[in-house]
Amino acid sequence: MSADPRAASPPRSTTSPPPGGSRASAVEVRRSARRRRTVSAYREGDRTVVLIPARMSEAEEQRWVGVMLDKLAAQESKRLLGDTELAERARRLSAQYFDGRALPLTVRWVTNQNTRWGSCTPSEGSIRLSHRLQGMPEYVVDYVLLHELAHLLVPGHGPDFWRLLEAYPRTERARGYLEGVVAAERLPFRPPATDT
């Protein structure tokens, strides 16, 4: 998603907060009359720069900003996090969404969890995430981590549990993503049709 920033001569530029709490603190949209159809994005310090055609409507701009932020997040999450980075991420999420009350003793990736995205043993303070999450968008991994962190505070999936997760703005989107993955895995394999 990187592009050469010199390729665009931005006649108009807007800066806005990113939707859904992306890591970057701001999004800058640069419009270019020379750009006809392509949209690209790259990180520049603490901001994300999205390059779009000048003729694009405001609605198209908003849609493409969301698409490009998701693509960048997916690329970044493909850089595999080790257990140490995963534990640090869990601590940051606990501090941000649960006032630091959810304190796991261990957070690690596991390869023996193929029917669950994550699991938690509150009595041991341990959280395990399925290796199948590696490479998924950052907001999805964050949601699963938060889900398991919430179990350190509230056992089960009652109303108090779901109230905790309401603080994370991408809960529904992440759940939809994971439901889509499960649905796709259940589809029967059909080899591609060949032209004869």
TrEMBL record:
Residues 1-38 are annotated as: Disordered. Residues 1-27 have a biased composition (Low complexity). It comes from the Bacteria. Residues 110-178 form the YgjP-like metallopeptidase domain. CDD domains: M48_yhfN_like (cd07344). InterPro entries: UTP_pyrophosphatase-like, YgjP-like_metallopeptidase. This is Metal-dependent hydrolase.
